[in-house]
Structures
1.
Amino acid sequence: MIPKAVQNGATLLDQVIPEWFSVIDVESLDLNSPWNCVLGQIAFKGAHLIPEDLQKTFNHRSRDNFTKTLSVLEKASGRYEIGLYEYGFIEEASWTPGGGIDHYGNRRGWAEAIKERENLKIQRSAETQRRLNQTVLAQQVRAGIDAELAVVIVERERREAERQAKIDRQIVELTLATQAQYSLLTTLA
């Protein structure tokens, strides 16, 4: 189950940096490190994902990767001093059912949130491919219908040309017959 704080943070990232999850290495994810936490990894490996209108904010602060990405989120959300615990960006120790302390709840939550988004991206990609295939198929069907229609039209035009040629031959034959009869009558008269 994804902790509420991590859900908040993932939702905020989705709104500001939609592909953020694609640059997170879950194996090296360490929420207590400004370089290997979610925000640090986005800054280090995902600078190209920062929206153009926020690039200046991203490049302005240069203390560490964590702060760079945090400043982008603050600017985009209009909230300054984003609560790091509130958004699950740092680890918060919690008691386990056995009475021990769990220092990795948010890390596991981020791993789940990333997996969810990767799966959703795969589903969307498959849906996009399915729609593309349907479009191509529809175009092929349309092209097939157009080709069949073209064959019908060409065949109709060929038959019409043959009928017209037959009529023209009959006219020529009648004209020749009439001329022959006129010549015969003129010769007999």
2.
Amino acid sequence: MIRKAYDAKFCSQKLRMNNEMMVFQHTRKNVICHICGCKTSFFGPEGVSLREATCPVCGATQRASDVAGVIIHTFSKNDTLPLSKTSLSLVSKKIYESQSIGIIHECLKNLPDYHCSEYFDDVMPGGLNKNGILCQDLQKLTFSDNSFDLVITQDVFEHIQEPEKAFAEIHRVLKPGGYHIFTIPYHEGKKTLRRITIEDGKKVFNFSPVYHGDPLRQQGALVYTDFGEDFVTMLESESFVTDAFLCGQWYDSDEIPTILDETSYDTYLKYYNTNDLCRFFKYNSWVFRTQKSANRVKNNA
């Protein structure tokens, strides 16, 4: 169950906690993988974040399984079916996912109105890279207003220069009643930290630069924001209705890394330089779901 301390804090910030989703268990043992449907134990190398532990049957991470679980809970009449077998519930939905790889992508890619993209530094938004993959910048999407029933983003908003713009853009492209289901590395018990701000179009580093692993960039993906419990204020201006699902809880707030001073930065660099960041960045598995009001179409003119 969700700890009362978190429930009280979220309620005070007008973030609705959803108590219907308590099918999730806070352990990696004997749980249902919401990708393949097997009852199994999620495993990973000793010391690696349990959020990134994997299903031995299909290879899905705990995080991907939890995202799939929220998608199923939102769109399917049968919560017991895995995402790999619920395509009929989504066949009439227009879906956009902000990545072109991963196990959720593999489950959804053959749907008739599924769209995916990546962000490429050398491709204009709306264009295709040499492999035919669409480029999109979440801060200025090229899609029309009211286009999608579902937008999926996984651990991407921390890498966006101005996340408020991206939330506003997702609100714009969602149909009334549409959902944004997403994950972020969530820093429980802490306030949102702007590691980098943009002033006059230039990056201002408020803290030392931090990178997360990125299959597209050798150096990694630069972190602009460490999201804390107050991040929901970014959603309030878009009148999103927001639910939070605590799908896996393994770490206390003091175990979730905050890189502020020289000592914590040196520790981070030790893991970064040995390509072992999954042992440093440890987070509980939270999945967030925002819904665009069915009665209000925002005027973006």
3.
Amino acid sequence: MRTLVRFLYIFSLTAICVACGGGGGGGGNGGDSAPPPPPADQAIGGIWFGTDNEGLEILGASTESGRIHWVSPDTGEQGFGTASVNGTAITINYTWVAELGFVLEDGSTSATCSATGTIQEYQSIAVTTNCTTGLGSTFSASASLNYDSLYDRDSSLSVIAGNYDDGGLILNIAANGVIFEQGSSTGCIISGQVAIIDSQFNVYDVSMTFSTCLGDFAILNGATFTGLGILDNTVTPEELTFAMTGVVEGVTGSFVITLPRYVGGQASNSCTTNVQGCASDQYSCPAAAFCYATESSCAASGECP
């Protein structure tokens, strides 16, 4: 799936002065014609795909207000920050982080970066970027990105609501945008929220928080991940991608997931048996936090509509 990016920098336009001349007593016609107006500021929003100068795939998403997330699927690394436009010049100031649990090439976990280049709204972006890692190393790159019309799809909570297959677990997005998932082996409960940024465009705001995780996964307890989401209906079943970052044990890391919409037998939120994370004879639903001994006690909980 194509997703994620935004770059920008400040481009200053030089003022063009028009010389006007005149003489006493004559009254002749003369003077230069007015200069053309500067180009209008290009819109920043979009879903973008392309490659960098090393041929690595780059996927990104940006909002109309200039919020950006972009990822390298080959490495799991991610950039997040803000962008601005002046005419057709684009600038982004962002942080580049390693995938959660990994490090960048020099052993650091993040880099401070800026990128400058040009943008043609809803068409293309071309940028060069310069970064300095937490350990003082520097690196630069360039990227050329094309616009994906998937961005033009309207967004709404009713469109994104439903169940998604997270490797056999069910991630549920309720009609009000509330996210819930419970892991049977890890003990982790994921709770969060999807929100609409601009209903005209297919980019969502997303946040997730982990709790009750057991064993090696306990380091995730209390960690909150935030970012952008995209719903891709060009594939079957459609896929939900979240590009997020969060802090675990004091280190900011990249967390990107792509989940297909769940089309299996247990796709409703009504109380039933054989729900992932519960015993086969217990009652629950993907959106519920608990398992119940009887269907009536499940229904009385109000967790399953």
